């Protein structure tokens, strides 16, 4: 398989980009986790309560809690992905790429749902949240390019080693007896 970015991009090899990408995902995850925790604190303790002592309806709070849970899992997955880079585990890298793709889709869906819930009660998501979401959706694919490319390189390398071992086993050993039962030259 010919990988398009096997030599790297922007002066980084796929392995280096995977490490920097993992650190990026951890940093952004912690920032977004902090941001969402602050939003929940404001929703639960702010003056001018809308329903049951909160700023937002229960479904809006569930959206915030879902975002916090997803960010926590994202941070843990980034740590596992960095361990996969260290151990040269292709599955870990490729699974992280799939997770981040699904995570970004779910993030857009949940923030959009939260926007609709807040709009029902006359509130809105601040522009900083929308800007953070847009930046994340734009930058995640850049780092995923490195991670997926490195995962595919490791996958290809692993399969090449399997092919070499398989050929060695089918060729027979030097000096060993080969089965010639179907050879017409005997």
Care to describe what's here?
The chain has 186 residues and is mainly α. It has one domain. The protein is 74% helix and 0% strand. It is built from four helices and no strands. The protein has helices spanning 14-45, 58-87, 90-120, 127-171. The radius of gyration is 25 Å and the shape is elongated. The protein starts with 13 loop residues before the first helix and ends in a 15-residue tail after the last helix. The relative contact order is 0.14. Residues 49-54 have low confidence and may be disordered.
Give the termini distance in whole angstroms: 41 Å
Main pleated-sheet profile: none
Query: What count of domains describes the coordinates?
Result: 1
Mean pLDDT: 81
Keywords:
186 residues; mainly alpha; 4 helices; elongated
